[in-house]
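Handout, section B. The chain below has 170 residues.
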Amino acid sequence: MGLFDKLTGTRRPADGITPASPRDVRAALLGLNRPDLPYVIRDGTQEDADLVAEWRLAEPTWQTFFVQSQLSRAIRIRMRLDHEGHEVRALEEGWEISRVGSPQTLQISTQYTRGPSRTISTRWTVHRADEAGLAATETFRFDSSDLVNPLRDTVLKSGWIWRGVVFGRL
C-alpha cells in the first residue's frame, strides 16, 4: 500500500480472491441493510452514484438516537462500481451538525468536507466506586467507522478494490 492509498483509505483484496460480478457486489452491499442499523444503503442515481450509504438522520425513528449521540458530523458515502477495474470508488462526504429547537432536532450545516475522516462520540457516567473514589463508565459510543468498515469489508470479500476518492470525479 502506497502513501496515497493510505491517505485516501484505499484497500485491496487478499491475493487469490476471484472478483465477483458487479451485480453480486451491488447485491452484497445492499444486503447490509437492516432496520436495526443507524445507516441505510440505497440507490444513488439522484446523487450521481451507483449506491449511497448514509446515516438515517431524517428518519423519525432514529432522530432520538442521533440527538442523544452528540453526533457532530453527518456522513454520506457515494459509491461508483467500476466494472472493468473491479473496484468500488468511494467518496466520503461530511457536514457539521447542530441541534436546534425544543425538543431538539438535528440541522445540517453548509460546512462541507470531502475525503476519509473518523468521528467518535462517547458518553461517560461518573459514579462513586467503593473507597477508591470516583469511577467512569462508558454508557454510549458512536463511531463513524461503523458505517465505513462493513462497506469496505464487503467489497474486499467480493475480490474488488475499495478506492477512496478525495480529488477528481467519483
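Note. The mean pLDDT is 84. Compare this with the example in section A.
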